[in-house]
Design goal:
Layout lengths: L5 E2 L16 H12 L3 E7 L9 E7 L2 H17 L6 E3 L6 E5 L3 E7 H7 L1 H4 L12 H4 L28 E2 L9 H15 L3
Length: about 200
């Protein structure tokens, strides 16, 4: 499916799992991120509404260096457990690092980028796992004063697998065809490419 199509809400009936019921590697990834002072973790159970993964973990950092440190800690920590990343994106600028571990995907954001793309809003119908973490870990208000990057990094994961009915083309898109979409994506990529 393509980025330009609108997300179709799917009712979810599954009860959110608790932290102790999560896969070991996902718990370890969260622990590694928290050890590096990641903020505002949100864990979504997308197993009934996404065809390409079961879990989405969203985390915030206060700078590109902080995002890089969080990402590095996750990669190293899971590698020590024998869990290797299947794919990654954004590691060249560390404004939005995406790590794909197949059963779960981790998004580590420079916080203004997280606010801009609002993946929590896109996945608003996905059950959230109750993490039971202290308020200071969950509170992202101190990060809201940070300056947004200019230009904003390109959207991560323009194409990915999913259930056939997961996306709906409602005819309201500004894009007339897939060729227009490809052209727009090329322009977006050119805009963020280093000169």
């Amino acid at each position: 499916m393509r980025y330009g199509r609108r997300y179709k809400s799917t009712p979810v009936t599954a009860t959110p799992k608790t932290l102790d019921q999560l896969p070991e590697a996902l718990r370890a990834a969260l622990d590694c991120a928290l050890d590096r002072k990641a903020t505002g973790p949100v864990l979504l159970d997308v197993s009934e509404i996404a065809g390409y993964t079961d879990w989405v973990l969203l985390l915030s950092g206060r700078s590109d260096r902080h995002v890089a440190g969080i990402t590095d800690a996750i990669l190293r920590g899971l590698k020590e457990l024998g869990v290797r990343v299947m794919g990654s994106d954004g590691l060249q600028d560390h404004l939005w690092d995406l790590l794909d571990y197949e059963d779960f995907i981790i998004h580590v954001f420079y916080h203004p980028v997280r606010l801009h793309y609002d993946l929590e809003g896109m996945w608003s119908d996905a059950p959230r796992v109750e993490l039971g973490l202290p308020e200071d870990v969950m509170d992202t208000k101190p990060l809201e004063q940070l300056n947004a990057p200019d230009p904003m990094p390109a959207f991560r994961g323009q194409e990915f697998g999913g259930f056939e009915d997961e996306f709906e083309d409602d005819g309201e898109d500004d894009l007339d065809s897939d060729n227009d979409l490809d052209s727009d994506l090329d322009e977006d990529l050119d805009a963020v490419a280093p000169s």
